[in-house]
Amino acid sequence: MQAALCGQEQLLLKPGQQRTQRACRRSVLVQAAVPPSAWPGRVPVPDTLPTRDGPKKFSLLGSTGSIGTQTLDIVAEHPDKFAVTALAAGGNLDLLAAQIRQFQPALVSVRDGSKVAQLKELIRDAPRQPEIMVGEEGICAVAAHAEADACVTGIVGCAGLRPTVAAIESGKDICLANKETLIAGGPFVLPLAKKHGVNILPADSEHSAIFQCLQGLPEGGMRRIILTASGGAFRDLPVEKLGGVSKADALKHPNWSMGPKITVDSATLMNKGLEVIEAHYLFGADYDNIDIVIHPQSIIHSMVETADSSVLAQLGWPDMRLPILYTMSWPARVQCSEQTWPRLDFVKMGDLTFRAPDHAKYPSMKLAYAAGRAGGTMTGVMSAANEQAVELFLAERIGYLDIMRVVEQCCEAHRADMVQAPSLEEIVHYDQWARRHVADSVSKQGLAVAA
């Protein structure tokens, strides 16, 4: 399947395969259309920093999650520079209520309309009573809030696509922490961002590192992107032993404290495969010029090789707040406290080591590169299938090695229906299709492991 995905001709004209005339025509006509990258190989920096009357204002999607809480920590430390005007959250009402009391947003959105009365009771003593909205309408309203200068997209999954589109259509810069925006939505989102003159500023540590290294490069100055990976929980485990690993084993990340899904993605290295696709969409690098290297210390967050073979790297302690802060402050740099933002000490840091990733241990890499080269809806299908497979693994319904097997099967099943230039509706449709396909496949194939 991976070899087939790499060949565009095989995707478009699989021998013996019947496709609808409309789908075939769409694929053939647009196969040469490549969406504009957010930062095509360079990041032009304004000659003068923007001036504003008062702090820069943000809407925040996913305020009670990891990205959201770290964003609000930054706002709390720098109230003269940043403020939040609108918050969207899921079901953690106690934390949301505390955020409302502290940051006093004008608008709040919650996922479940039945929780509004409870939230109102929790914030009855808040100094400012916000407008409260619910569901997708509410989160889109938060994203596009009139007072916001930019939107931090900390919501997980394809649920972040529509509100991100709403923010772009309202002219908000995007502080991007939602992978699906580009992995699934890149062919639709990037032309939209260009149309509205919106900056997409990466909050992932790896893409922030590349973004920083590209600043000041002339046109054509970038030759190659080098993404660093920790290697995850099994980087030192022989590949022959992967068949016996458990959920608990996969969740023991050697460097980072993260949520279960991203920790498993780090173990399979699918997180890095997804980042390869994001790097392609963000910076316009060809897939042949995006490499992955295992860097166990996680001090170098990624590198850029220039046309003359120089290599530029961004270093720092593992701390997600730094890339989040830079999306919020760019093109400015914010002076931070050494107590809450420890400076990098090269003596304490010690040795930096690197190794090539083992393709037998990490089959996700070839799959992600193949899906990326196929483009269109294939990348979103792969991401959604992986998310569903990881969920089943965490529920102990499938084994660790089954994750990539069912993802690859899903991508193979999607080949006939892949859309090269999808609409937003098609992106969301195939995201949901991939999740159902994986769940159904696991049930039919009897992959469930013993409880």
Automatic annotation (TrEMBL):
UniProt-listed Gene3D superfamilies: 1.10.1740.10, NAD(P)-binding Rossmann-like Domain
Catalytic EC class: oxidoreductase
Catalytic activity line of the entry: 2-C-methyl-D-erythritol 4-phosphate + NADP(+) = 1-deoxy-D-xylulose 5-phosphate + NADPH + H(+)
GO biological process: isopentenyl diphosphate biosynthetic process, methylerythritol 4-phosphate pathway involved in terpenoid biosynthetic process
Pathway note: Isoprenoid biosynthesis; isopentenyl diphosphate biosynthesis via DXP pathway; isopentenyl diphosphate from 1-deoxy-D-xylulose 5-phosphate: step 1/6
GO CC terms of this entry: chloroplast
Record InterPro entries: DXP_reductoisomerase, DXP_reductoisomerase_C, DXP_reductoisomerase_N, DXPR_C, DXPR_C_sf, NAD(P)-bd_dom_sf
UniProt keyword list: Chloroplast, Isoprene biosynthesis, Manganese, Metal-binding, NADP, Oxidoreductase, Plastid, Transit peptide
Family membership: Belongs to the DXR family.
Stated name of the protein: 1-deoxy-D-xylulose-5-phosphate reductoisomerase
Organism: Chlorella vulgaris
